Amino acid sequence: MAVSSEELRRMPMEDISNYKDERCTCVNKRGVILIPIIFALVMICGFTTTYIVAVTNDHVRSIFPYISDTGNFHPESSVFTLVCCIAAMLVLTATVIADHKFDQYRNSTEKKFKWGPHDKAFSVHLVATGAEWSVAFVSVMFFLTFVRNFYVIEVEAMIVKLKEQRGYTRI
Fold it and tell me: What is the pTM of this model?
């Protein structure tokens, strides 16, 4: 049973970070903390590399191009794809670890979490909540920008056939 996102937002971080479950093996904190650091480094280095290659090959203007435009042409498109795949795997890994930690915490307590002005770090909570809603709104608006592009795209069914070859057995 998963904990609700509202409960997650209201959980005191001290409770989450201090929770220990004897049934689970402990992961080295230094190893886990590297995931967001590696994510940031991959994104910064990868997008900087695609930018430099795209500008050098005269595929984009040097002044403030869209990040996605720096990965439109070969050879920078390969680097761009690799960066996006590595970043997606790091985000997936971080999400699975965080979900597991929150499940451990949820199973150990039945507290209800409601932030109020009397709580420690209430102002930080307000800023984080505002940032979260802003990111959600901007993300939705970003995906809505694809509507016009997708209007002119047609998708046809793709059929993949396996040919029998010498030395290979059919699946």
Answer: 0.52
